[in-house]
User: Fold this.
Amino acid sequence: MTEDEAKTVAALAAQCAWGGRDRLGQIMRYGQLFTPGTQAGSGPGPLLPLYAGRNAYQTAMDSGLLYAEGYACPRGGIPAHSAWCLDGETVVDPGSSKPGTAYFGVALRSDYMRRAYEARLFQDGTSGFRRVFAGYDDVVDPPVDPAADIVWDLGRDIPSWVRDWALTAQPPSGGDPVAPAWVLDELRRFPDVRASRPATLSLAASAGDPVPDAGDGPKGQDPAPAAAPLPMSYARYLIRRADWLDSKMSLTCSGRTGGVSSDDGSILEEIRDGDSLDTVIRMADEHRLRCEWALCPDDEREHPERTVDKQAEVHLTWRMGRRASKDFAVLHRLDYKVWDAWLHPSHMEGPRLITAPPVLLTRNGVSYEMALAAVVQAMGDEMPEEFGVLSIIAENRPEPDRPLA
Assistant:
């Protein structure tokens, strides 16, 4: 990932965290990085940011390219909302006089783009279309169905925890929308990873739903698992096998184990044939309001680490510097020889300690040794040579099955 690509993604993430999720959330959730090209300035309209969407739409319709929208970084400029075309995975930027240096966004199928354009037609036959997301009226019309309207398997992925922070972080009370330093650091060192269709979208295609025309955009819709999960507010809801139900599938809340699969979850509802992703999310939303494990502040932003029903905790703390005695990671014992690991990102800005939401490092319950290894890997060069270890045992719980520190 280039420096300009990292800055472009961080700029969009900051806009989402500062209250722009309603307008930009789908770009942040599903966007990918595309390769800057050499073609620019071929659009029929003025080469101004306001006309980027219209230039990209007209060029896509006339040439058979894909329309894409998101955040772009002009050469020597500041990342901003824009639109462009895609020839495969290479950007064609008809709305700019020169090719940009970074492009992060979503590619949309031509059938959806025609509907979006026609939805803004005036009586005289002209269209008020400017762009799909964050238009002048802040309404996405028609709504984008990620499973049917977005072209997948194009571009490169970004760290899932950056998406999670942008989509779930508590909106700051003031100041300029600037992502914390750890976001840029994570983006800079993230390897090139091919993008793929998020596994969660496989639920959205109900039986009998029309399948998008394979000729209406690049082929390749293999529903392979992706690195990016649903936002953390849904991370503890699992779809699990339940042989005693007619459909043999159920939605389960794993709040007791912070989202880790175990037999200790609560079965909420049966998932029937044809239930869409929206239906499953509605089930989760209805349960979340009364879930005893959802400990949230007033703004309803969930802190999944707090929901863990842990038998013991092991806090790894800094020993030196201004962060001395502060956690950089916490391990939880969930069950006998079953642990998870959470990173507690932080950095210093002058005399101030800036912290970010905890990040779950282990996708499933692991041994204590594997949980510790996950922390070491995530910390990288920042892993201190000496650190403190503080064990906390829950009342009436056995001693944790970990090696003595």
In short: The chain has a mean pLDDT of 78. Residues 393 and 399 are 7 Å apart (CA to CA). The longest strand covers residues 327-335. Residues 3-30 form the longest helix (28 residues).
